[in-house]
Amino acid sequence: MNAAHALADTATLTKRSLAHVLRSPDTIVTTAIMPIAFLLLFVYVFGGAIDVGGARYVDYLLPGILLITVASGVAYTAYRLFLDVQGGLNERFRSMPIARSSVLWAHVLTSLAANVAALVIVTGVALIMGFRTNAGVGAWLAVAGVLLLFTLALTWLAVVSGLAAKSIDGASAFSYPLIFLPFLSSAFVPTEGMPGPVRWFAENQPVTPIVETLRALFAGTAVGSEIWVALGWCVGVLAVSWLAAIAITRRRFG
């Protein structure tokens, strides 16, 4: 089966998957509600008590909130894939002359589209709340690139969960640690004031370098080596998750 056929199959299945999302846009709104609630809570309730070196707290906070938005959104990918698997839809697709990779890629591309919409909503709310940036066009493109790569990595992790889960709750439960991981990073407060072991974990887990990279890009300052650490984490999670998803698919469906 040639590449053109595979791309056509992926496009067709992606349209099907996107149609489900468009028929229930509340999933996108629901994805954005929790990050917006965190944004409101921390800016208006806790922000005045947190010292972030003179910067506006909403500017400091937004990068971490965007990562929480993605972590919340990919849970729906695992949920939708689990329903397809349990309903026997994957077996029916595989009985047709459809590229095997197109089934998973349709879910992945749908996740990217839905998460982009949620990220735009959250960013819009932050702008209303006073978020301001010195980022130029190039920096905004870099922010978009980092967020898309992060979303792609977590989406393939969601695919693994959706394929391997035994229940609906299990399919989406993987996202809970991802949602709360930013709380143990520099997303909400600087790591300097954390106790030793907590600080070590915060500075050596994937969220902190990604947050620091986005924060520098928004501020229009030099990014430094953090961007390479951030990209390394994203690419590493993406590669491992993709390989795991392919292995599970071959084992379950042949």
Automatic annotation (TrEMBL):
InterPro entries: ABC2_TM (IPR013525), ABC2_TM_bact-type (IPR047817), ABC_2_transport (IPR000412), Nod_factor_ABC_transporter (IPR051784). It is found in: Cell membrane; Membrane. The chain crosses the membrane at residues 28-48, 60-82, 103-131, 137-159, 171-189, 227-248. Keywords: Antibiotic resistance, Cell membrane, Membrane, Transmembrane, Transmembrane helix, Transport. Residues 26-252 form the ABC transmembrane type-2 domain. It holds the Pfam family ABC2_membrane. It is a multi-pass membrane protein. Its main location: membrane. PROSITE patterns: ABC_TM2 (PS51012). The keyword Ubl conjugation does not apply. The keyword Plastid does not apply. Belongs to the ABC-2 integral membrane protein family. This is Transport permease protein. It comes from Microbacterium nanhaiense. The lineage of its organism: Bacteria, Bacillati, Actinomycetota, Actinomycetes, Micrococcales.
